[in-house]
Structure formats: structure tokens, C-alpha cells
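Re: duplicated header lines in exported C-alpha cells

Our pipeline writes sequence and C-alpha cells for each protein into one text file. With two proteins the header for the second block appears twice in some exports. Here is an export where it did not happen, for reference. First protein block:
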Amino acid sequence: MFRPAIVKRLGEEELFNPGHPACHGCGFSITLRHILKAAGKNTIFVVPAGCTSIVAGTMNKATFRVPFYHTPFAASAAVGSGIIEALERRGRDDVNVIVWAGDGATYDIGFAALSGAAERGHNILYICNDNEAYMNTGIQRSGGTPRGAWTTTTWEGKREAKKDLIRIMMSHNIPYIATATPAYPLDLYNKVKKALSIRGFKYLHVLNPCPPGWRIDTSLTIEVAKRAVLSGAWILLEYEDGRLRLNPPSNTMLEKRRVPLEDYLKIQGRFKHLFKPENKWLLEKLKNDIDEMWNWIKEMLAK
């Protein structure tokens, strides 16, 4: 559970209304509440098709208390670029433009628009809501689905590794990249604040557990997100002006052992098949994916 003192530090104003139709325990609904607290009222959200399109509500039952643009699946970054261009032509520099897109709309369908907006350096914050599959359309695998995970299109476990989007975004030479998770709300809040204070294209990647898609109990969302970090499967980091740094508790994991990856995997139904003898090879490949990422982290920090 969150400590009340930490939650209070995120501010009293609520810009994400209760009573929305998100699933019980939805990770991204928790994340969005904190993001809106950090961004404030002068914010425009741009969202492609996905779970958030439903959660946003309609007309007088809207969940967001800021302007919200629904866009086609592939177009969110392009629409965000257009909005910030229009605002700048009007001399407005007091509005935050935030693109919020799922892993399917980021890794796959919308990647061309994302890459283009990053290359042009448009002054927007792009946030990937990564629940590691196309959840809104039936839990199909995406480029963000980790190796070994069950989905309705990889029912024996995905054979390919999760695409390394952090390194791909680093190659765009943008001023700020960060990762986060709702298990560490103050870290998330501070990263949104920092990103919005920097001019240019910023990229924030948030791991958000999905109870139906991950096959977890709705009470375990924050615990699962926390175990993702403590096991090293998800690394809290910032990449600013060409320099990489790790954030707590990931910054301690170079010196001390991470908790066993099994502690993270075994409470998720989407990975239960990995613990059958015939799938040991797939579990080992997933572990190798994570170890390779940590080896790269060590190399980057040594530069």
C-alpha cells in the first residue's frame, strides 16, 4: 500500500475523476491520476484507440478534467505535434501537450509517428502506457510483450524478446527519457514534472500491470509492479542530455542481488506455463534478456 504521507505530497487537486469504467486494479488508472496531478490543469491529452479511450468516458461523464483528444491508432504523436505547433503559432507556451499511448500504439502501430515527432523535436511529452499486450481488443501480443508471456495469440508463450524501445528512443537524441511504474508514485510524479520543464520531445515509459491480461488478482497491482522493479525485470532510469542514471531502488541493484525473477513471475497467470519442465528453456531465455539489459546498463554507466 502507499504511505499516506507520500500520496499527500502529490497534491490535493484531482483531475482524474472517480467512477470511471476501468477494470478493478487497473494499473494505468492509478498512473494517470498521478500524472495529471503533476501536469496540472493547463494540459491537453492526446490518446489513440485503446483502454484509455473507454475509460475517458463521454460528454458530461468524462473522466479527464482537461481537454482530451481521441485519435486514430497510428496518429497520436502526429496529432500531438499538430497541437503544439498550433499553440506556438498563437504564442501559447503555457500548455502541456501529453501523448498517452499503449504499447501497441507505441511499439507497433504508431511507431512511425512517434519516431517522426521525436526526430523533429516537437515540444511534447510522449508517455507509453505499457501493459505489455493489446489489452482492449482481447489480450493479443505486441512488440512490448516480454518473452514467455501468454496472450491469446501466444498461448504457449511468446517466443520473441520484448523490443528494446528505450535504446531505440535514445538513438533519436532527445533531451529526456525515463521509466516509471505506479509502485513508486513520487518517482513517477517527479519525472513528469521534470519532463514538462524541459523543452523538446520527451519520452516516459511506464510499466502498468493489467489484472485481466496478466492474470493477477486485482488487489496485487502495486505489489506486482514493485516486484517487477525489485527483480530487475523493470529498471527505473533517466537518460538526460546523453547521460544515463538509475533511480531508487534500481540504483542499488548493481551492488546487491536482485530478488529472484520467479518472485515476480509466479504471481502472474500469464507466466505459469514457464514452470513446466518442457518450458525451462523459455524461462532461461527470459532471464538472459534481463541479464543482457543489466550488462548494457553497466556499460553505459561506466562511460
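Second protein block, exported in the same file:
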Amino acid sequence: MKTIFKNICLLFFVSITFFANAQNNSNYEIFKDIPYYPDSIQNKDAYIKEQCVLDIYKPIGKTNAPVIVWFHGGGLTGGKKSIPKELLDYGYLIVSAEYRLSPKVKAPAYIEDAAASTAWVFQNIAKYEGNVKQIFLSGHSAGGYLDLMIGLENKWLAKHGISTDSIAGLLPLSPQVITHYTIRDENGISKYQPLIDAYAPIFHIKKDTPPIVLITGDREMELLGRYEENAYFFRMMKIIDNKKVKLSELEGLNHGEMMRPGIFLLMKEIAFILTN
């Protein structure tokens, strides 16, 4: 289903009402800088040891909590493993994973890191009272791109003995679905030149996927045609009869502004997935 929000004021009103009944942000225990690669790999590469770590935000007193693995944005060249504070308003267990960045590395290093950190979550999050059967992937911009890459092409997680079928849902905010512009730049291709190859989520269109919720900003205000990319991805999924994909456009909001109201939609969709 394609959803366009015509009235952002209404969205914020509903968001505020929802937050009023939400969890207190202080009700979290935080575990910082946990390595997700084994020592045999970390000890051989100083950049992996420095960069390939994750933080866990565990809701105090809650067991069997749904899990959101969050990848930050930054064009695959910047950013850090921080999370929007709104993610802590719902009592879910949040994992914020860092990954290596270009130009220190090139594709597929950051995709491999996203897969390795997600696999670590599947293998270890029960120790932190997380529900292994309710692991969702999310993130903004480049983070959303990583969600889709490892959630659509099974080989990245299969390397760690995990199937994409185990993912409860993919909920990227304003993801690139053609080949990421940083990967194009690594290969001397302009960010204005569209490319679809194996590093494009849209290359991996298929009927059977985890539930997918695509959320973008206003098509006239988004970054480099981001809405149109997602709309084409959505259309092709529908053509092959994938019944698990949705697309929402937040009118009046640009690429950066859409993230926080987008989180409200993200959480609403997760609640829907968990109850259906």
C-alpha cells in the first residue's frame, strides 16, 4: 500500500499523543562498544577493532523485548553509532551498530559489517533479554541502504549462518535503493548517474522477503530523487506480487527532517507486524 501524508501537523499531533504514553528514556541500561567480530579478526585489523563495535540499549525490567538494529546515516563516509532519542520511547531493545567507512574501505566492507553486526545480534541478544524472533532492521539514509542490502540478498548473512527469513522486518528511512552514490564515486561514476548493479537493493527484487516498510520525505525536497527510487522499488515489488511492501511519503519534510516523524511511522508499523 502506498501512503502519502497530506497533513504533517496531524502526524505530529498523533505522535505527541503517542509519546505521552511511552516509556521513560531513563529506563534503559546501556552497554557500550561491544565488538561484533571475533578476536581473530579484530586483532589483525586496527580499523576493524576501532570501528566494528555496537551499543545495546536494554529496557530495564523487560524480558523478551522486540529488537531494533539501527544503522546510522552519513553517506557511508561519515556518521557514528548514535540513535535518535525517539527510539527509546517504546520499550524496545535497541542496538546501534557502527561500521567501517569509505574512503578507508570500499564496498562491500560496510555491507559485510552490517551483516556481521546483525548476525552478532541474532547470536547474542537473548543474553540481554531480546527476542530473537522479533529482530527488525532500521536506519536512516545510508543506514537504510544497509538494511535493504543485507535483508534482500541472503549471501551477506548466510556467511554467518543466518537467513534473511529470520528478520522480522526491514524498515528503512529514506534509503538509497539504486547503487549507493558512494559506491559509484569509488568507481569514478558521478552521483548524478543512476546505476543498478549487485550493490543496489532494487537489483534484488523478489517475491518472498521480510515485511518491508519504505519511508521517505517529500519527493520535491528529498535527496537526489530518493522518493522516486523508492517508488520504483515499491512498484516492481508489487508487480512480482510481493505483498509485504509498503511505501510512505512525508510531505513537507526534506531528507533530514523526515527522520524523527518517520520513527513514529516506523514504530507504528512494527507494532502492526508484531500483532499480525
